[in-house]
Amino acid sequence: MQAGFHLYLQRAEAYAGMQSWEPAIKDMLFYLKYFESNQQALHQCGEYYYESGDYINALKCFNRNLKDDSNNSNYYKSRGKTYLKTATYRYAISDLSMSLDLNPDDAETWMFLGIAKLQSGDRENGCSDLEKARKMGESRSLKYIIENCQ
Q: What ranges do the domains of the chain cover?
């Protein structure tokens, strides 16, 4: 029986590929009932919650991730971008900055940090971070630069 549990992860991934977040989350929660210390599965569940727009449950997953591993830049990035969606910009900036302390070469995190700074009223530093993200290859940042920094 145990050998089949990984199939729930695979099916969740397939549902996520179809953007069917509810069944993807359901499979992840079932898996996590038995393997609650699996950080990767917990993070993936948080990402599915994020994609579904359920930011509160996404934050719960990412908080658990960070409680168990506070040196993972992806966990800070995920929680930071979720805080960004909930308009708690101070927390978003803090987490995204911590993610960049751990991994300064992540262009997407620079973009999210720039957006958070713009949203919090810090146009100058926000535009600077967005420009850094663009130079690092994050093409989505160009939209925010054009809309906010020209």
A: 1-69, 91-150
Q: Which CATH superfamily is domain 91-150 in?
A: Tetratricopeptide repeat domain (1.25.40.10)
Question: What is 1-69's CATH topology?
Answer: 1.25.40
pLDDT, tens digit only, all 150 positions of the chain = 456 898 999 999 999 999 999 999 999 999 999 999 999 999 999 999 999 999 999 999 999 999 999 999 999 999 999 999 999 999 999 999 999 999 999 999 999 999 999 999 999 999 999 999 999 999 999 999 999 998
Q: How far is CA 15 from the centre of its chain?
A: 19
CA distances from 42 to 78, 88, 110, 129, 137 (A): 12, 23, 24, 29, 29
